[in-house]
Structure formats: structure tokens, C-alpha cells
Amino acid sequence: MALKPFVDRLGYDNVPSEINRLRCRVNYHALKFLPEIEEMSDLLVSRMRNRTGVSNPYMALHLRFEKGMVGLSFCDFVGTRDEKARMAEYRKKEWPRRYKNGSHLWQLALQKRKEGRCPLEPGEVAVILRAMGYPKETQIYVASGQVYGGQNRMAPLKNMFPSLVTKEELATKEELDGFRKHVTSLAALDFLVCLKSDVFVMTHGGNFAKIDYWGSSVHGSSS
């Protein structure tokens, strides 16, 4: 699928809701990804299912904890004083109107945390999945950008679920090089691997998660 900018409303006024729903479903099924993206995603799914030598189900985890997401959330996260200072400067630079003088942010962060409106940290995701009953051996495919905090931030999740991989670990650099020209191509690979998973877990909202959630419902996967 390669789209140029266009506008085509899925819903129209004065049209019965069931007709609008039908149009939405027909448009969804009419979308086709480029053959090379479909083929590569099928290869990733096959490797994901056969990592242990036998066919296994797998979970797809859409982990939203990139620097931009963390900054825009204006939530407080575990970190050193130096890390918090750098994040404060980053927020002040990127979102000066929201930052103001910074004095109001601590109360805002506490409020958002209590209301469950903060992106989940990888360690929090691990605790939740374990509490839901998923065992240590669960095969997990992680769809994510560059996680804020790097490997140190990912360590709690990897320690509790060691069978955790990304597309970069399932495929060779050469296999993925052809998709790096367009960041949306890499996102499309993640989307399809998530869509074909047995369980789909999202840690924060967004169009990717919403579309995959709806697609999983259409195709019969659990979310």
C-alpha cells in the first residue's frame, strides 16, 4: 500500500449508520499492502511462530515509550535527577506553551498518573502481563520505536519475559534495508505482524493501536 494525500470521508450525513458501517468495512478490506510488505510480514510471522522449533502462539505488544511520547505526556517517570532535568529541558523546548514555568507540572503529572492517562513503562507492562497470568515463556513480538531509556528501561520487561523480540532480531539487516527508505514501511511490517498475532496488547492510545485493535476484531484475534 502506497498512498498519496487524499480525502475520502468514511461517514456521510443523512446516511443510515448501518450503511456507513458497511462502507467502512468494505474500504478496509479493499486496502492492500505492497506485495513485498505482505511477503516480509508473513516471513516475520513464520519465524515468530517457529522460534522454539515447534509452532507456537505469540503475543504482539505495541509499546509506546519513545522520547516524544514521554515528553508530550507530561507525566513523571522513574529516573535519575539528571534524566528528569534533561526531560524538563526537552519539554520546555518542544512545548513551551504547555511548559510555562514548570511549577504546575508536578501536580499535573500526579493527576494524570492517578487517572491512568500516562504511557506505561516497560516494567509496568511486565507486571500487568504477569498479573494477568501470562507465563515467563510467553512469546512476545514488540512493535515499538526507540524506547526512551534504551536497554536499561527495557530490562525489567526482558527479565520477566525473556522470549521477547523485535523485527530487527527476527530479520537480518539486509532483509530490512529495503524498507528503511520509508519509516511507514517499517510501521506497516509491525502492523501486519501485530494483526496476525494471537493476542494484541497496546500500552497507550493512537491510530496504530486503534486500527490494529479493530483489524484484530475483524480477523478474530484477542486484544
UniProtKB/TrEMBL annotation:
GO process annotations (BP): fucose metabolic process
Record family assignment: Belongs to the glycosyltransferase GT106 family.
Record protein name field: O-fucosyltransferase family protein
Coiled coil stretches, renumbered: none
Keyword GTP-binding: no
MF term (GO), any: glycosyltransferase activity
Source organism (scientific name): Salix koriyanagi
Entry keyword set: Carbohydrate metabolism, Fucose metabolism, Glycosyltransferase, Transferase
